[in-house]
Amino acid sequence: MSSGEETLVKEQYVGALTRYSSEYGSVNSHTYTASNIVGPPSRLDDYGDHTSSLVFRTYGRFWNLLPYCRFIQPIGHQPDSFQSTDFIEIEYREAVYPTDLRLFETFCPGGLVRVLISDYETEIPKETKHLSRWRVIWRGGAKIRKHKYDIFSPKLPKHSKRSIATKRLRLEFNDQLSDYYHELDAVQLIGYPWKKGTKASQYLKQRIMKNVKVSVPIKMLENLKIEDKREHTIVHPEKAYFDGLPTEIIRMILSNLEALVDIAQAALTCSSFYGIITEAGFLTELNLKPFYTSLKGDDLIHLSKTYFLHLTKLDLSWTGVDNIITSADAANGVKYLPNLEDLRCRNCEFVSTFFLDAVASCKQLKVLDLFNAPSPFDLCALEPLVKLEYLDISQCHNLTYKNQISRQRTLFKSLSNLKWFLVGRTKSSMFIDESFEQIVQDLTTYCKGLLGSALVNSFFF
Fold first, then answer.
1. Do residues 38 and 14 make contact, with C-beta atoms less than 8 angstroms apart?
2. CB contact at 8 A, 326 and 297
3. What is 95-122 written as a DSSP string?
């Protein structure tokens, strides 16, 4: 690169934090909070535990051994290419074509596993937001690095005519290999400045021409709208077709498929496979978290009412980013799942009172995870879930609570089977001192099976 080109490179630090998965810090504090990632580094070349850093809520594997974790074991299959457990979504003041990224890590460095960029408001204008998407530009495995101050630079793709301009980044982490909290001080983005109108029209045209509606596995499942023609199939046992095998044998073979994309491909193979895969009992657990960047509302509705009718466990965590799944979409999706016992909606923007009213129709629900739901919702919408045993509303800062004391008692009377009620770092009028004392009293009165350590353990507060 010539010296003339170097002068064109723009260096900038985070201008705003738009989303995050978790934080160690407390409400109304700047200690170990996600917002500390904004701005230049405050502890340059100073290794150690600093309260001015971003720190996620957990690290290591021992968190998965806590007593309540038996209720929230991983659902379904998670592809090897997706190992993310935490994320931050950040925005810079000026859009650039990224050439370099620098993470200033002050303590226990390591953990970055993916870097994604968004084409929204650069290649994709606001008027066509539905065509926007997140694109992975770097992927790596979680590693344990030396205990020293580190500026980590993942190797980004070289700048070319196919490069995408962005001012929004999403960094995903996995700190399960770390022996203590990973602390991040700043993130610097370096790249060539983007000017409005630069090749955007051509890029937009290509995006419109392509089918960018859904991801590959979801697209495959959507293609299953084909007519079932099993009744017209002529079986010739002498030719040793799969149709000649007993259905039980075929079902046993197909049950070894774990990945959603493999199941979808098998279903497209023939009408016999299609019939088995879509029948009751074949697909009972599903993890859609790895597809959060592309799963849209209409996809969820179609799949729920056509293929997911017999699901008992569903993980929607992280989905709905950029409002591609609305509260109405999510509500319409879950209302077709009468057998649902376990629903995970961590960091989901579509969680609302309207959505929870639909969830309340899932009468078999035992586990509900709403961790860090950013939108307001009324907790009392959960009154009909009388079988609920696990409820996590930790880091939900926008709870509404109408007619507080009277409805509180009605709620806990209904949730008498509750065993774990996680409310750590939740900012709400529900949890002011007077109300909190009343909550403890009502919980001990009406929820006899509650494991009280989940409520008072300092881990959650």
1. yes
2. yes
3. EEEEEEEEEEEEES---EEEEEEE-BTT
Q: Which residue in the block uniquely carries the two structure tokens 């009620």? A: 421
Report DSSP letters for 255-321, one per residue.
Answer: TT--SHHHHHHHHTT-HHHHHHHTSTTT--EEE-GGGTTT--HHHHHHHHHHT-TT-SEEE-TTTTG
Q: Quick one: the chain helix, strand, coil %, rounded to 5? A: 30, 20, 50
Contact between 170 and 94 (Cβ < 8 Å):
no
Closest residue by Cα to residue 100 from 167, 186, 193, 189: 189
The residue behind tokens 């996680």 is 422
pLDDT score recorded for residue 232 = 41
Q: Write down the pTM of the prediction.
A: 0.85
Structure token digits, residue 246: 């007993």
| Residue 347 to residues 35, 72, 202, 395, Cα–Cα distance (Å) | 16, 15, 34, 10
Residue written as token pair 């002068």: 7
Structure token digits, residue 294 = 């592309």
Q: How many residues does the chain have?
A: 461
Q: Using pLDDT thresholds of 50, 70 and 90, give the confidence band for residue 457.
A: very low
Going from the C-alpha of 266 to that of each of 217, 260, 285, the distances in angstroms are: 11, 10, 17
For residue 61, give both structure tokens: 């594997």
Beta carbons within 8 Å of 50's beta carbon, 6+ residues apart: 42, 43, 106, 107, 183, 185
Distances (CA, A) of 180 to 49, 55, 104, 174, 244: 10, 10, 17, 13, 57
pLDDT, tens digit (0-9, with 9 covering 90-100), for 124-166: 887 777 778 899 999 998 888 889 999 999 999 998 888 899 9
What are the pLDDT digits (tens) for 385-435? 999 999 998 888 777 655 566 777 888 899 999 999 888 766 555 554 446
Mean predicted confidence (pLDDT) in 352-376: 94
End-to-end CA distance of the chain: 51
| pLDDT of 210 above 90 | no
Between CA 128 and CA 120 the distance in angstroms is: 9
Average the pLDDT over 83-90 and give the result.
96
pLDDT tens digits for range 214-255: 444 444 444 444 333 334 444 454 555 666 778 888 888 887
Angle 62-450-421 (CA atoms, 0-180°, nearest 5)? 60
3-state class of 453 per DSSP? Answer: helix
How far lies 275's CA from each of 27, 186, 229, 309, in Å? 51, 52, 10, 14
